[in-house]
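Q: I have 285 residues here and want to know how they pack in 3D. Can you give me a structure?
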Amino acid sequence: MLRKCVLAFRRGGVEDERLRAFVHRVMPTATAETVLRSLRLSGDDVLLLCHGESKTVLGAAVYRCMDSQHLFSRLGSAELAAFVRENAGGRTLLVSGLFVPPTPQQSELGQLLLTEVLTLALGREYTYALYMPLEGFSDAWVRELLPLQGFVSVPKGCSRSALAVDMRQPIILSNNVDTTIKPPLSTAPPVVAAVAEAHRRLQEAMTKLQPGSLVLSLSAGVIYHRLLRRITACNGDPREIELCTGSKILQDFRDNYLVAFGGEWSVGFLTKHNPGLELSASLSV
């Protein structure tokens, strides 16, 4: 089972040694050089998903946030640029690569990377997303993942490979079942597989409610641990933290401060009313 508490997202670039080492580690040399050359020519941004403790790169997403005046120069197709302008209603996110080695966790890591990039674009008020891979990216598994987010094929007259999704009215799913199942069931492979398959079917069903619109799957595990890190980073007086009813500040035997809260709503309250707070760990009881 993937431990989301040890994952970290890092911005990178084509000259980042971590990216170069990752690409050469998981690809043949010729293919790796083709991918790196495509990245260098595109000028797109890179997001790395790393193991927070070992710093090992687990996957990478390549993307660019574009204004309408940059569409033709980046896409290289007048028909596709016109299609995007007609449907976007605003700025566009281009996802030009999603790479995770072929392991049993490929889809889960790919989903985390894709969600991170889509969330970044939504935070900047981008209204449309397009997937068009760079040369060298093997994307058969990505094309199975993207429809679960609501991506659909663009008209063949515009492109034979691009997929697109409207982000103006997203459906948000909270992937939080794994935070409510207690050990030892929470780590039992059949249970983990059943939960993942059920969530996949839910994503697929949601795409049929608003065809062509974004279905954004948020990992509760990632959200919780980001919140925990924010609370830890706060060096102020813990007594000044604004708590909701039912929450309490405690100390353990080493005098570390703890925040006891009753559920997801309480975590949301802490985030809203205590900007900058971060926790270092979480425990469900």
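Q: Anything worth noting?
A: The first helix runs from residue 17 to 26. The chain has a mean pLDDT of 85.
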